[in-house]
Amino acid sequence: MALELASSVDAQKVPAWTQDITISTVAVTSTDIDSKSESSDSSEEEVGARPARLDVDYDILNLLYGDMDDTMRRWRNLYHQRVRCGTNKELWSFTRAIASLAESVLGKADDPKFGGRDTRQIIRTLVTEHGLCSFLELVVSQEDFFAEYPDFVISMLDVVIAVVVQAEKHPNVLKQSREMIAALCDNAWKKHALLANNDELDQYYPMGRLGIRHQLSFMLLAMIMPVKAKTFGSEGFLRRASFVCWFYSPEIEAAASDLMYSTIVLMYAMEGNAGTAKERTSRQTNVDVKDLMELMGQDVLPTFGANGYLMRLRNTLEHPGLINETLDWAVSSMTRSVITHPEFLNELAPSGILKAALECLNRQAMEGKPGTQSDSLCNVLGMYTMIMNVGFAAPKRHHAILTALIREGSLVEIVARALRICVTEGQSKGLTYNICLDGVKALETCALWANTLSAKNPLRKVMRQGFREEWYPTLAFLRETTGRATNSKHARILNIWKKLGEDLGFEEDVQKAQYERELRKAERHCTRAACRYHKEVCPIKLRACKGCGEKYCSSTCQRKDWKEEHKLRCKRLNGNPEGEAEPAA
Asked: 319 with 281, same domain?
């Protein structure tokens, strides 16, 4: 996404501080986003590069130890005398020294560099007796704050993080920090373009904006992960700042170990304090939906566009390390957000987000912990149900999204899978019989409508093919599990499912015979020999090679087998000239 500089720096190509920087002389150091965490156990392979930091002047810290009031006064004066976005070396050095003290607050033990002093107590004293939070609020609320020299910005955020950590356990610190946190998050949203990557600025300070975003993300995580964000107030500001950090920071997701942090920040942006609740039963309330619709419709859509948001979201969903809890969080964020505005729905298929969501469900089914498909399936089924209900209330207006859902959403397969998982995993969370019943009813309306179309209509063909593959196996499963079902809605769903197939013209005996033939033909096994489902029965619908019909459990297996040996075999079997045979999408 192209960078647009904030109004305060519109007139200049780059900030004034760049005039005193020699290109290519700024080094980078190595650490990772969680290096400050007491619980960090990241391996060397997971450590990534971050911006270089200024050296610490310990004489400044000695001044602080000797006279906090005078040191704070000097710090304020240096700030007020600064050249905005210019070269302010004394201010930078002063701020860096105090930031080093703040960094130690997150350490495991007292750092000898600070003479055994309790740095946590020093930070608390600066807040409660010397007006640290009011000074921080003044600094972080400036419209050009994020355009200042990156080390200065990162250092200020270091101090903010230390205050946040102390606020979690000390009410007097919390009380004084709330307005400062709100001002910082509000500024991050309003001047979000100053947080986007900028190759030209990177010449003067490599990875400067990346470092700023990572610090801002770390501050948010320090509030979100301990479930303390709600105590700071200003939920709307925090959610918007979280969105900015997630949107501009796909690089965080490069390491599987850091993918969790990215999905947590995304989930908080979408769900707010409800998304951090340990008990998830009350996450979807009318207030949450209203707030999310406002965020997505009034803020995200006009600022980043439907396609821009969905393409970034697709990045997250396609990460191969997204699995189990992180997958549930990401899928939940996707399904809740895209239903808030028609423009997001219209871009589901063109953006590839629909396909990415289905790949997530398949990944969880094949690679996730046993018995953990319910949450993600529940969210996707809920989205599908809403789309069908709204779509058929005004079919002409929503024809495009209904078409995309039928053609690319594996609609019948998802509903059928949800019915089975609802039974096998129980209804303690995620899928319930009520949710499944709503889904089956919506599918009934959609399927009967599609069946009235011409026999040559692609939508009718896709719908009928879905029922041809899923109707009888699901019907047989529902019958087999009737005895252990404790909910009366099980029988109701069974009856609706049976009648729906019959209304579409399917005969049970015929479909049973076809299903048994497919089992005998080993149609439930992946062709790729190295895949676990080459021998085990695959729990999801297989995909077929368009060239020769061989079956695969996923696009990943299909691509790997294509490179290994299938390419030659497929050409030989089909007699295709070189270059024409390709794996199915």
From this structure: yes
The more confident residue out of 28 and 485 is: 485
Burial category of 78 from C-beta neighbours within 10 Å (exposed 0-12, middle 13-18, buried 19 and up): middle
Does one domain contain both 378 and 516? yes
403 Cβ neighbours under 8 A, 6+ residues apart: 459
What is the H or E stretch that residue 503 is in? helix 489-503
Q: Are residues 59 and 13 in the same domain?
A: yes
Question: Do both 407 and 494 map to the same domain?
Answer: yes
Is 176 inside a domain boundary? yes
At 577, the pLDDT band (50, 70, 90 cuts) reads very low
Question: Between residues 276 and 403, which one has the greater pLDDT?
Answer: 403
Residues 98 and 239 in one domain: yes
Residues written for the chain:
585
The phi and psi torsions of 80 (rounded to 5 degrees) equal: -65, -25
Last residue of a domain, one of 369, 398, 429: 369
Cβ within 8 Å of residue 138, ≥6 positions away: 79
Taking the alpha carbons at both ends of the chain, their separation in whole angstroms is 27
Final residue in a domain of this structure, among 248, 279, 300: 248
* Full DSSP string of 533-574: GGTSPPSS--EE-TTT--EESSHHHHHHHIIIIIHHHHHHHH
168 within a domain of the structure (yes/no): yes
Q: Are residues 108 and 171 in the same domain?
A: yes
Range of the domain at 170: 1-248
- Contact present, 218 and 161 (Cβ < 8 Å): yes
* pLDDT of the residue at 110: 62
Does pLDDT of 579 surpass 50?
no
**Number of domains comprising the chain:** 4
Regarding whether 161 and 22 lie in a shared domain, the answer is yes
Q: Which tokens sit at 455?
A: 């026999």
Contact 523, 497 (CB under 8 A): no
Distance of CA 73 to the CA centre of its chain: 42
Report the mean per-residue pLDDT for the chain: 88
Is 281's pLDDT higher than 60?
Answer: no
CB atoms within 10 A of CB 86: 14
For the record, the structure tokens of 291 come out as 């707030």
Tell me the pLDDT tens digit for each residue of 167-183: 999 999 999 999 999 99
Q: What CA–CA distance (Å, rounded) separates 347 from 360?
A: 18
Residues 421 and 346 in one domain: no
Does residue 580 form part of some domain? no
CA distance 160 to 132: 10
Predicted local confidence at residue 458, as pLDDT:
97
582 is a domain residue: no
pLDDT tops 70 at residue 34: no
Mean pLDDT in residue range 66-72: 98
Cα atoms in the 13 Å half-sphere on the side-chain side of 144: 17
Predicted pLDDT at 562: 92
